[in-house]
Amino acid sequence: MSDRPRVLVHSPRASKSASPAISPHIEMENLIAEIDTAEIVAPPLRSSVGRLPLGPIDKVHNRLAKASHRGAARNLSFAPVQPAHDEYEMFFTLLLCPDDALGLLAVDRWRERSGVAVAWLIEAWYDDLDTWKGHWDLLARFDHVFVTMEVTRDKVGEKVGSPVGYLPYGTDTLLFSPPSPERSRPIDMLSLGRRTAGTHAHLLDRARREDFYYQYDSIHASEVKDHVEHRFLYASQAQRSKFFVAHRSKIGAPEIGDQHEFGGRFFDAAAAGTVSVGEFPDTDRFREAFDWEGWGIPLAVDADPAPVFEMAADDPDGIEAGRRRSIVNSLDRHDWLHRWSTILDAAGLDESAGMQDRRRALAERRAEFVD
């Protein structure tokens, strides 16, 4: 690899330094720097130091950008950052939501330095798209925009005037997949983050009555001390779990209406070989992403998951075969490498030598789970 980076990556990690929502995004950005030649720039907020919350100027800037196209004309929120080089083949940014686009204003001449620019927008609910204005002006400067919520694809395309593609979430499958099928799974059910009260009560009751290990959140955690360590702990738990509570995104939230979406937890769970249990999205894209037998067992909201455990007891070989299929399919299709390859293809760039090394590592891990 050349020492000179060909990709300039903009990251919101400095302005959202403690948010668990960006842990997987930092994971992907770090992997890009590892398998490609990339420089990461992360503008910090002017008004915050370390983990302090947004200041009044930052909030005003964001509201102004939402209300007016002029709101994205000037950088009020972020301390300027200077990339190390004058030219890059590509500029890339992974945005949790359109709000993160304002950080682009702090990157000196980011568009002029880059041959092609690609943005990946993870979360923008359809009914909220009209609440952003200046943010779309910034995204209009990109050659390619990807969204993970396909229902928003056409409308986002109208707003940015650029080709918009669909790109599903992913994960670090080498981190989440067990090193071998012999990995023990002492955790009977793992539940992290959003959950439904009824099912949680059923599981808690079972854990109190039986020899049943139910691992769940007992505090409301809003800060991550170290994102890499956070993902390692999460992966360690997932690959040692038999089942994993996984519902469609923001289940029970009235503001999302009937929009069914799916986030990273499904990809994490599949790569770890733990069987997802919950109410799943009713969309073709979800069925396309998880089109093999045994990756998950549907469960109605607040239902008692007892039938899930009875099914597992009746067919342990079938459950184990499903685990292996999940791990193999994830290594084949859902690694961050596969998403980066799609992005590079849209940008017209060739794969790097480091990407080929990653493919070999994925194939080696895959071989452990194929008879």
Provide an overview of this structure.
The mean pLDDT is 91. The strands form two sheets. The protein has a six-stranded parallel beta sheet with strand order 2-1-3-4-5-6, sandwiched between helices. Strands 8-7-9-10-11 form a five-stranded parallel beta sheet. The protein has helices spanning 23-35, 56-67, 110-113, 134-139, 153-160, 173-176, 197-209, 227-238, 264-272, 284-289, 306-314, 316-333, 336-347, 353-367; strands spanning 7-10, 38-41, 88-95, 114-121, 144-147, 164-166, 187-190, 214-215, 241-245, 275-278, 296-298. The protein is α/β, with parallel strands linked by helices and 371 residues long. The radius of gyration is 21 Å and the shape is globular. The protein starts with 6 loop residues before the first strand and ends with a helix. The chain has two domains: 7-170 and 335-362, 3-Layer(aba) Sandwich (Rossmann fold); 173-333, Rossmann fold (3-Layer(aba) Sandwich), CATH 3.40.50.
The CATH topology assignment of the largest domain is: Rossmann fold
Major beta sheet, strand line-up: 2-1-3-4-5-6
Q: Rg to the nearest angstrom?
A: 21 Å
**Inertia-based shape:** globular
Tally of helical runs? 14
For the largest beta-sheet, the strand count, sense and barrel status come to:
6 strands, parallel
Q: Provide the structure class.
A: alpha/beta
Strand content: 5-15%
How many individual β-strands? Answer: 11
User: If classified by CATH, what would the architecture of the largest domain be?
Assistant: 3-Layer(aba) Sandwich
Q: Give the helix level as a range of percent.
A: 25-40%
Number of domains: 2
Rounded mean pLDDT score: 91
Distance between the termini: 35 Å
Which regions have little confidence, pLDDT < 50, spanning 5+ residues? none
Determine and state the CATH class of the largest domain: Alpha Beta
Order of helices and strands: EHEHEHEHEHEHEHEHEHEHEHHHH
